Task: inverse folding
């Protein structure tokens, strides 16, 4: 008689897989991908290391899944910020502030997603992540051109420039080598976000935000 997996067993597998995902992200959020060791993840999730490899082909595939899920949350937040009322410039400013502000509030998580050296499998997800942002910005820029609040330009190129500018400007502040103090952190972050947004909007429109 052929073996048939029961619904209860499928549920247990799904729960174990979710625990592995949650615990891996917990490790990444604390110390980046380099701190997410399989033995530690297995211990936190309460499973054997072999169980992890039954759910994920390799450590790199597990990390790629984590990266995909985490970045989708960030892209969704930027899309939400672009959905506010107002003209395209105002909506783009809202989205840029969301991007930079969330990164600076969770520097280790943002470092892992934006700049931490990763395996090629995860780097592919990072490229998809950047493209997802560029796609959102491109639509908003095209809408702004139609509205007349953004000058005629190559919207695709401009959108990729926005993603590059904001990501590159955050690398230094997010780096784990940076010494961070709670004192005045919010003020410094707000000043940095303002500067990033000003640069990006000025590049798009030729005027300061």
Result:
């Amino acid at each position: 008689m052929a073996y048939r997996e029961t619904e209860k067993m499928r549920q247990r597998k799904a729960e174990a897989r979710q625990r592995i995902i949650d615990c891996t992200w917990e490790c990444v959020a604390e110390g980046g991908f380099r701190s997410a060791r399989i033995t530690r993840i297995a211990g936190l999730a309460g499973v054997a290391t072999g169980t992890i490899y039954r759910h994920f082909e390799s450590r790199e595939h597990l990390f790629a899944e984590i990266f995909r899920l985490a970045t989708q949350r960030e892209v969704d937040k930027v899309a939400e910020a672009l959905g506010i009322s107002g003209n395209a410039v105002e909506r783009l400013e809202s989205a840029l502030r969301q991007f930079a502000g969330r990164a600076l509030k969770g520097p280790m998580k943002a470092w892992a997603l934006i700049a931490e050296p990763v395996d090629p499998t995860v780097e592919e997800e990072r490229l998809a992540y950047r493209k997802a942002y560029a796609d959102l910005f491109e639509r908003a820029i095209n809408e702004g051109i139609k509205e007349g609040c953004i000058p005629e330009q190559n919207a695709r190129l401009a959108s990729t420039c926005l993603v590059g500018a904001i990501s590159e400007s955050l690398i230094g502040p997010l780096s784990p080598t940076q010494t961070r103090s709670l004192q005045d952190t919010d003020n410094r972050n707000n000043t940095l976000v303002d500067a990033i947004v000003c640069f990006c909007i000025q590049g798009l429109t030729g005027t300061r935000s």
